[in-house]
Amino acid sequence: MSRDVDYDILIKPGRGIKHYWRDLVQYRELFAFLAWRDVLVRYKQTAIGVAWSIIRPLLSMIVFTIIFGKLAKLPSEGVPYPIMVYTAMLPWQLFANSLSESSSSLVANTNLITKVYFPRIIIPSSTIAVSLLDFLLSFLILVILMFWYQFWPDWKILTIPLFLCLAIFVALGFGFWISALYVRYRDFRYVIPFIVQFGLYISPVGFSSTIVPEKWRLIYSLNPMVGVIDGFRWAISRENVQFYWAGFIISIMLTMAVFVSGFLYFRKTEQTFADVI
User: Are the C-beta atoms of 192 and 103 separated by less than 8 Å?
Assistant: First the structure.
């Protein structure tokens, strides 16, 4: 006599940090798939497509140059003001776009999260791919600006990948925090635009951080994007420009603190995403 038996399949995540890293390696193809999907969807059905990644920082550069460079006549450390502003726009746009995209990424992938197991941290991490593509396209405009103004940086331009890595860690750290909080508190859909807009004005994007009084510069560097932006500007500057190492070290420490704490908080809460989302 035959009997029909029903089986329930329980999918469990890897236990412990060692197994979690192993899972991340095993699901690397999913990371690549999600990143490629985000790249394809980003400018789908838009009239000018990826040109938006160039137009936005270019228009922002023009506005900041007119306001701070022409009207306020703020210093530019020997660098043409448009180049100084545009150099700062590159890491800022990477951070702002990554934060905006990663914040709602978990909610946008509800069907995927509630059906199969995989390290959920792959979802907000994959959104950085679109921002990196925008960064690379926008960097070409920076090269064109250098040709236009006949401004040639020295060997320090080779350090840009290091500051780019720091910008990525800042974006990922805040992305882990915000995406995990967004699952439980949907208020963040209103908070994120405010954070991005407010951060643009308190970060040295349209002006040089050298205008901040010396006694306040260390406190000002508590904004981790200050060190990133100063690093990018130092990389395209001439040798007579001094680098504020104390503030940069503070930025690195805060970046690592945000990244590690964001990762740990994400790990702590990700097992509840499927229930809450």
Answer: yes
